[in-house]
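Hey, quick one: can you model this chain's 3D structure?
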Amino acid sequence: MNITMYTASIPTLKHMLGNLSAILTKAEQHAAAKKIDPSVLIGARLYPDMFPLARQVQIACDQAKGCAARLAGIEVPKYEDKENSFPELQARIAKTIDFVSSIPSAEIDDSEMREIELQAGGKTFQFKGQDYLAHWVFPNFYFHLTTTYAILRHNGVELGKADFLGGRSVDY
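Sure thing. Here's the predicted structure for all 172 residues.
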């Protein structure tokens, strides 16, 4: 199988969002077992000037849906960023997986040279599709996934590398 923009992006995003969901399930179970108010983990940060866990999950989802939409040349769906519980974060992940899954491969393939423009941090960024995927989406997506993992690990949730990587099978 050849690597296309679709196969380079959507299966990876879906797989890792599934892993993120499984990690949050473990976090919720940990909170229940240790009698920790779940809001403590939802609001936890690695450092005071960093975003809390809920925002890390929101941004990871934003990177995935933004990637799929921009590569397909369609409008990026807007989410309200109001999640403050594990079930609400799980629903956001599921909604994101549903959205990226809904885009046919034909809409994303051959988007290597598609002009992509986005606003972030008060700045405008311009990319070609392949550079956007490789140099913006994946670094940001993995940063926020890793930070979510690190926040939970730092707070005692028993997670390991296998939880981050998840299973090897990928549903195309």
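One thing worth noting: The first strand starts at residue 115 and ends at 120.
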